[in-house]
Amino acid sequence: MSNAALSVITSDSPEKWQEILADLITDPKELTEILQLESTGSVNSRLARSGLSEFSLKVPRPFAQRMQPGNWSDPLLRQVWPSQLEDEVDCSLSEDPLQERSFNQATGLLHKYQGRVLLTAAPHCAVHCRYCFRRHFDYAANTPGKQQWRETLSQISRDSSISEVILSGGDPLAAGDNLIQWLLTQIDSLKQVTTIRIHTRLPVVIPQRITNSLCQTLSSVDSKLVIVIHCNHSQEIDSSVQLAMQKLRSTGATLMNQTVLLRGINNDAETLVSLSHKLFDMDVLPYYLHVPDRVTGTGHFLVDDQEGLKLIAKIRSILPGYLVPQLVREDPGSNSKTRLG
Ligand SMILES: *Cc1c(COP(=O)(O)O)cnc(C)c1O
Ligand code: SF4
Hints:
By secondary structure, the protein is α/β, with parallel strands linked by helices. The protein folds into two domains: 3-87, no CATH class; 100-339, Aldolase class I (TIM Barrel), CATH 3.20.20.70. The chain has 13 helices and ten strands. A ten-stranded mixed sheet has the order 1-2-3-4-5-6-7-8-9-10. α12 (269-281) crosses α13 (305-316). Residues 1-10 have low confidence and may be disordered. The protein binds pyridoxal-5'-phosphate and iron/sulfur cluster.
């Protein structure tokens, strides 16, 4: 039997999504070659130095396929390209603008808001979004092993005020099926927890992650399950993403989307309206439109509150209320996200 045939029947052969995850584009030069961008001017002058060394390039190939060749202004490329603008020094930005370090009570646990705790369920993401508010987060120190997970879970179980556990990251779906299944089962068995929420960008950047076996695991959760995908532009949604969302829908989960409002990517009404329509076509409701956090290296993405408010007013005049996301900002020390407008 040939090796290829063998690997098909070996039960621990990697799944397609794991192969994609192991074969990310990490070299800026390769990305510019794939997108035929080399002839359009010097690549080096467009590339961050310090920004790139502290937060590497990571792009899944299925996501790169949705970018328009030859276009430096492509809204998907801009989300992942380590631009020279990241190196600009801006003293009004900080590495931990949300002061998360002070809310970090146990390994992998963030408890800021009443009734809800957030678990950093995976130490990495499938993509590096340049605007990421956790680009300086110390995942290594916040990646529990099973014993630490047990302690964290037992801490949650002792707090009767917690009814919702949120799996965030990193990207929780970047973890393997075994860990996800184990965690969900453990959380599901906590008496006071009624809702499990998963925040993930994987159904968008590697839709192949939504396998039948993952869906089976999600279907077996007794708690209410909420899945919030992170999609910033309608161009991110192709037929493979639509299929992934259809599968997630069939698990009975409530599906929502969170968008980060990004200068030069989606800060216009037409783009946001088109995104809401495309999400709704997949039974996904818009949840938050998040003003970017003021993180070092991301100044070029910032949209100020006034502009955000104008945009929301404009899309509210076009869309039904249920397709208008809530414009929010995160303020350190606040007991909820801050609604604007
Ligand atoms: C955003 C966030 C939540 C969830 O807040 P919702 O308004 O319920 O979406 C929970 N914990 C932390 C630490 C958060 O940043
Ligand atoms: S998927 Fe989310 S956590 Fe991961 S890099 Fe992108 S914005 Fe950051």
